[in-house]
Amino acid sequence: MHLINAPLRGGFDKTVARRLRHLTEGQVTTFMEIGGLIPQGASRVNGREIRMVWGNMVKDLGAPLWIRQLLSELSLEHDHSYTTSTGHPPFIAKLIEKLRIEAKQNVTAEDVLVGYGATQLMDLITMFTVNEKRAVFFPEYSYPPFLSGVRARNGKIYAYRVLPNGDPDTEHLKHQIEKAQEDGFRPTYVYVNSPQNPTGVIHSPESLGGTIAVVREFNLDPINENKMFIISDDVYHGLVMSGKNEKVIHPSSLLTEEDNGVVPILQLGSLSKEFGLCGARVGWTYFINCEGIDGMQHLKNGLIYALGVDLCAPSLYQELGARIVLETRHLPEMIAKIAARQDAVQAAFNREGIILGDRPEATFYWWMGIDPNFGTWRNDKEFARMLAMEQGVGFAPGGAFYCGEGTKKQFVRISLVEPPEIIAVAGERLDRFMEEHKR
Ligand SMILES: Cc1ncc(COP(=O)(O)O)c(C=O)c1O
């Protein structure tokens, strides 16, 4: 059976890390990322405590064989020099084409920036726009490192609610923007992520259009001198279980004439997820509809400067990106792999105490409820901790994703980064754990 290294070093905490390492020497275990996704460790910035994410992300899906073969051939041809710091021109040309095909948006080479993954670009955007007077708007369950990035800049996060179907509650978003203003903060950006990590939900055109409408209304109001923008994190764009890519809409494809020069969108993409190349560290952002909007050119200049300081994203992988980014033939393989793992989760984890919910429509996560009354744990974090310590099965506690007010529900997120046979063993261990800790 496949052996894995637990994501060790920092992360969840050192004891759990040690325990996981010990357990994984035997055989099997865990769903990765447990270390990477638990915000832990505190540091002080300007006298305020902020929580950072430490630890290792270890694994994602992995690239199909033909992509690996292409990479190995390219590595001989390629000269491995620096590229233009904002992106390798042949790659940029393909990215422009990709946006035109997928979202019917036309941008120029100046509107595309390539960085070390979507993460670097997101972090730079936050670094250049967020400070202690700024408010940003995230869905109540969001990707923890991006939340940490805002906290590290002393920005204020207003969470907007997620409806029972997983879509953004745009009424609540509007309410939160007004509240931020009343509280004396300047609304800066709205983050949307479809398909979404952690829930795997594909947002409906209505809810994405509603998000655009909220920003449009805000930006058109003459009282609001400083305009907001949307960050559209579309890194899971191709990973749709139905295989029907047209189901997933880039919010930018919904911009209408009335949004011209009114609703700017920074759209993120990446080789990490859809192509299974998370270690390549190549992502991109499009500046869509940003022309003439105060602040957006300034932000772009900041990003260009920072990317220039970093010299360039990995050149070989940008070269590879130029060859594969318009492809779709990898998708059936990626989706089949995820589907088999979803089947395994349904077979292995469908038990009392775990609320599996519907099969995720997209991404390679499963966002599961846990029944707080079933066992002896107090909350999701303790559940995940005990499970990791005792059985070496790693689930990321939902609390790490939660940025809303009030009581969060009890969730854990698993990453389907292991094959079905390991998921089956994790299911047996989960059964054992649940029996032992039943109230
Ligand atoms: C929502 C979301 N955005 C971005 C990323 C990271 O993308 P990249 O590897 O391109 O930095 C992740 C990784 O898990 C993610 O879940």
Short description:
The protein has 439 residues and is an alpha/beta fold. It has helices spanning 14-26, 34-37, 65-77, 89-103, 117-129, 144-152, 170-182, 205-220, 296-309, 315-324, 331-349, 380-391, 420-437; strands at 39-45, 48-53, 112-115, 134-139, 156-160, 186-193, 229-233, 265-270, 283-288, 354-355, 365-370, 396-397, 411-415. It folds into two domains: 14-44 and 330-437, Aspartate Aminotransferase, domain 1 (Alpha-Beta Complex); 65-324, 3-Layer(aba) Sandwich (Aspartate Aminotransferase, domain 2).
What does this structure look like?
The strands form three sheets. This protein has a seven-stranded mixed sheet with strand order 3-9-8-7-6-4-5, sandwiched between helices. The model is unreliable at 1-14, 17-45 and 49-57 (pLDDT under 50). The chain has 439 residues and is α/β, with parallel strands linked by helices. It contains 13 helices and 13 strands. The chain has two domains: 14-44 and 330-437, Alpha-Beta Complex (Aspartate Aminotransferase, domain 1); 65-324, 3-Layer(aba) Sandwich (Aspartate Aminotransferase, domain 2), CATH 3.40.640. It has helices at 14-26, 34-37, 65-77, 89-103, 117-129, 144-152, 170-182, 205-220, 296-309, 315-324, 331-349, 380-391, 420-437; strands spanning 39-45, 48-53, 112-115, 134-139, 156-160, 186-193, 229-233, 265-270, 283-288, 354-355, 365-370, 396-397, 411-415. 38% of the residues lie in helices and 15% in strands. Pyridoxal-5'-phosphate binds at residues 117-119, 143, 193, 197, 233, 235, 270, 272, 278, 283.
